Amino acid sequence: MGSSGHRKIWKHRKDCLLKLGTRRLDTVPAPHGGKRESRETGKPGIPVRNDFLYALSLFGAISALYGAVIALAQNDVKRIVAYSSISHMGYILFGLSLFPIAEGIVGTTFHLISHAVSKGLLFLNVGAITKQAKIRNIRKRGD
Questions:
Q1: CA distance linking residue 66 with residue 52, whole number of Å
Q2: For the chain, domain boundaries
């Protein structure tokens, strides 16, 4: 296939992407069809600043570490699950800070869905075991 064949395929891909309504990922659509434009692209949308994404990643990493350390220090089973949930929210915030990268957003979405399902079931199990054993202190269990 010559260079003209590659150009035809590229033009076809570009036409398909334009018909799907894709745009650059460095802008967020403006609410209610606003008229704001990104300075870099000139396309409609609100520009996402890198310092905001940096602050979001820093906040996510700190909350993930904080939740994990505090969960290790707890004796109450429900508090352990709650603080591990805070830690997972930090992972999700850190994933959101990878905004222009589509894989980061997809991974964050999958993590958010799996977190919601698993933590709900984990709280359900902890509640059932606590009701049966009538004890929430993890150090006293198993005696």
A1: 21
A2: 1-48, 49-143
What's the pTM? Answer: 0.63
Contact 130, 77 (CB under 8 A): yes
Burial 104-138 (b: 16+ CB within 10 A, else e): eeeebeeebeebeeeeeebeeebeeeeeeeeebee
The dihedral built from the CA positions of residue 105, 106, 109 and 114, taken in this order, carries a sign that is negative
Per-residue pLDDT of the chain (143 residues; tens, 9 = 90+): 555 655 555 555 545 444 444 444 444 554 445 455 545 555 555 566 778 888 889 999 999 999 999 999 999 999 999 999 999 999 999 998 887 778 888 889 999 999 999 999 999 999 999 999 888 888 887 76
CATH class assigned to 49-143: mainly alpha
64 contacts 90 by C-beta, under 8 angstroms: yes
Cβ neighbours for 135, distance < 8 A, ≥ 6 positions apart: 141
